[in-house]
Design a protein that fits this description.
With 212 residues, the chain is mostly helical. It folds into two domains: 84 residues, Helix-hairpin-Helix base-excision DNA repair enzymes (C-terminal) (Endonuclease Iii, domain 2, Orthogonal Bundle), CATH 1.10.1670; 110 residues, Endonuclease III, domain 1 (Orthogonal Bundle), CATH 1.10.340. 61% of the residues lie in helices and 0% in strands. It is built from twelve helices and no strands. Helix 1 packs across helix 12 and helix 8 runs antiparallel to helix 9. The protein binds a DNA duplex (13 and 12 nucleotides) through helix 2, helix 3, helix 6, helix 9 and helix 12.
DNA sequence: CACCAGGCAAGTA
DNA sequence: TACTTGCATGGT
């Protein structure tokens, strides 16, 4: 492709500044947030995580031992609380059975192997798996989401038919592996989509990507 | 009131 | 295979 992705990144960074996404205190907290934020506003996820913190159960050992119904109550503000409680339970099952109850051992797994393993968990799809890899395990893995599609297609940079893996590969083929850069770029695309590329606002006015 | 939010899986034909 | 639906709270 002719357009330089780094040019897009630079424009967005100049316009919006650093985003400092996902400032969780531990990789475990970040991982939980990755599941809770599925199709959900981050503000609601913070409420759920705050519930877990105040209850003193925001650790693998404590959370994995909770009855499903109680876990669901804590994460209620994040929405879809029953299904998310089940999904977290599935993730804890993976940690128990494959990584000997050790989050550290899981996060130390080789990147591609860990990605495939995460994808085998019911309730963890590509975006959640890659968010865990990038934001919790700090691997240089690009996270694609609905906003990534929307922005690139609105600017005629991709076709409507590209898959998640296509788009991820496109970014990773054109940008050097860099965890911090991938982190900021993803956050900036979300930021731009919210401000200029909403579903109800197909024509961007004052868009920082005008003319790319 | 309607619409949206940092998805994913199951059901239907 | 290709669409559609369910899951659910909270902010604008």
């Amino acid at each position: 492709m002719q357009v330089k992705l780094l040019d897009i990144y630079q424009r967005l960074y100049d316009h919006f500044g650093p985003q400092q996404w996902w400032p969780g205190e531990t990789p475990f907290e970040v991982m939980i947030g990755a599941v809770l934020t599925q199709n959900t506003n981050w503000g609601n996820v913070e409420k759920a995580i705050d519930n877990l913190k105040r209850a003193g159960v925001l650790s693998y050992e404590k959370m994995a031992a909770l009855p499903a119904g109680l876990l669901a109550e804590y994460i209620r503000p994040a929405g879809y609380y029953n299904i998310k409680a089940a999904r977290l339970g599935n993730l804890f099952g993976l940690i128990r059975e494959r990584y000997e109850d050790s989050v550290e051992r899981m996060l130390a797994e080789e990147t591609e192997e860990l990605r495939q393993t995460l994808l085998s968990v019911r309730g963890i799809g590509p975006e959640t798996a890659d968010s865990i890899l990038l934001y919790a395990a700090r691997r240089p893995v690009f996270v694609v989401d609905a906003y990534t599609y929307r922005i690139l297609s609105r600017h005629d940079l991709i076709g409507e038919e590209v898959t998640y893996d296509d788009l991820q590969q496109f970014f990773m083929d054109n940008i050097e592996p860099d965890t911090t850069l991938y982190n900021e770029f993803h956050a900036l695309l979300v930021c731009a989509a919210k401000d200029y590329c909403r579903k109800t606002n197909p024509r961007c006015s004052a868009c920082p990507l005008e003319g790319v």
